[in-house]
Amino acid sequence: MSENIHLLVVDDDREIRDLLTRYLTRHGYRVTAARDGQEMRKFLADRNIDLIVLDLMLPGEDGLALCRAIRAESGPPVVMLSAMGEDADRILGLEIGADDYLPKPFNPRELVARIKAVLRRSQSANVGGSPAAGAFSFAGYMLDPAQRRLSAASGEEIALTAGEYELLLALVQRPRRVLSRDDLLEITRGRAAGPFDRSIDVQISRLRRKIETDPADPAIIKTVRSGGYIFSAEVGTP
Asked: Which GO terms describe its cellular component (predicted)?
């Protein structure tokens, strides 16, 4: 399966590019390496890329600017790499659309695990036709797991990153139930939260901006003090 997956590694450190290229190739992936945003854009235009491993600190346009551009163009999923201690930058990366992040230095085996998890979340069925059995309706929205698609009452599709989709699905499948950050991270990513891991909070904030009438006073995804979050909308079938 992995031999059909084409990864793009973007890092200005030649040693890291070469190391990741060799390691990911040994795990069966096709790998292209770029040293900056200019090369990244060239390869995205010329090749079919399934996922980007993107360093935060790059010459010229940094990883945050590039991630924002990728997401604006509905580009492939992004796993961002960032130096340890840059929590604010990692959180900002998630806010603008990175699907996961990994602090440097990192274990290459963990990177492979993160890549596999993001690719699983981002795989979607062919779009088209009627909603499949098992679709959910709530607050005027329809979430179709068969197509991994969220649409408004008007029929307009609401773009979600892979991480946002998995988080929304986890909430919709467990309405009126308090879920802690640890619960949600385990459900969506299969791992426990670290003491400073705020990625769930970041993605909740992004979801609220997309589905709440007033994100500052949410009625669908509510915060439970010292508890986590609860999906308060009534969930039905289309």
From this structure: cytosol; protein-DNA complex
Between CA 219 and CA 223, with CA 221 as vertex, the angle to 5 degrees is 100
pTM for the predicted model, two decimal places: 0.61
- Look up the CATH number of the domain holding residue 198: 1.10.10.10
Number of H helices, E strands in the chain: 8, 11
CA angle 11, 17, 22 (to 5 degrees): 150
Domain end, chosen from 122, 149, 168, is at: 122
User: Is the predicted pLDDT of residue 237 greater than 90, yes or no?
Assistant: no
User: Can you tell me which residue has the tokens 């705020």?
Assistant: 198
N- to C-terminal Cα separation, the chain: 34
Whole-angstrom CA distances from 155 to 62, 131, 212 are 36, 12, 17
Q: Which residues contact 127 (CB under 8 A, 6 or more apart)?
A: 147, 149
Interval 134-160: pLDDT, tens? 789 999 999 988 778 899 988 899 988
Strand runs (DSSP E) across 22-126, as ranges? 30-34, 51-55, 78-83, 100-104
The radius of gyration of the chain from alpha carbons, rounded to an integer in Å, stands at: 18
Encoded tokens for 123: 């795989």
In a domain, 17, yes or no: yes
For helices 199-211 and 181-189, what crossing angle results, to 10°? Answer: 90
d(CA 238, CA 235): 10
Predicted confidence at residue 225, as pLDDT, reads 86
Which are the contacts of 222, defined by CB distance < 8 A and separation ≥ 6?
A: 229, 230, 232
Flag whether pLDDT at 194 surpasses 60.
Answer: no
Helix (H) or strand (E) holding 119: helix 108-122
